[in-house]
Write a structure and sequence with these properties.
The structure is a single chain. This protein has one domain (about 40-145). Helices cover about 65% and strands about 5% of the residues. It has helices at about 20-50, 55, 60-65, 70-75, 75-85, 100-115, 125-145, and strands at about 5, 145-150. The protein is elongated and about 70 Å long. About 10% of the residues are buried.
Length: about 150
């Protein structure tokens, strides 16, 4: 999915008018809505695919959960595959981590804690992961933008 935007009319060299600013503001609001829709769709997609290895590898998961000690569980092939393939497990943070992964991690932690314990008391996210996620998300979003020449749309 690409996000088509047009060059801002107040970015040229002429002195902008009030009408130029109104047009520019409306265009910017529309552009931000498109970007938000793109990110929202990515978050929805993450939710749809959340913990898919618990389904696709159900037999391995059940064997691990029912036969392994805590130490064996965390070292098991299933668990290692689960936390490696599932991007939201940020203790195995992918190099291309995004804010979508961070949001899925947050939602996963809160939902699991509330369902299991009735409360959420997790600590803060690693600032380096947040910084990397921010930069990677900006890069991802930028890669989807097509800046159209306004001359083609008059």
């Amino acid at each position: 999915m690409s996000i088509k935007i047009k060059k801002c009319p107040t970015s040229n060299e002429k002195v902008p008018t009030k009408e130029d600013f109104l047009i520019s503001a409306s265009m910017h609001i529309s552009d931000v809505q498109k970007g938000c829709a793109f990110i929202a769709n990515k978050i929805i997609e993450a939710g749809i695919n959340h913990d898919y290895t618990k389904i696709t590898l159900i037999d391995d998961m059940m064997e691990t959960v029912t036969t392994k000690s805590a130490d064996e569980f965390y070292a098991s092939k299933w668990y290692q595959e689960h936390i490696t393939k599932e991007r939201h497990h940020l203790h195995k943070c992918p190099d291309d981590v995004t804010l979508i992964d961070v949001i899925e991690c947050l939602i996963d932690c809160v939902m699991a804690a509330m369902a299991r314990k009735g409360d959420y008391t997790e600590g803060p996210m690693d600032i380096e992961i947040l910084q990397k996620a921010y930069l990677n998300t900006a890069k991802m979003l930028k890669s989807k933008i097509i800046l159209e020449d306004e001359k083609h749309h008059e």
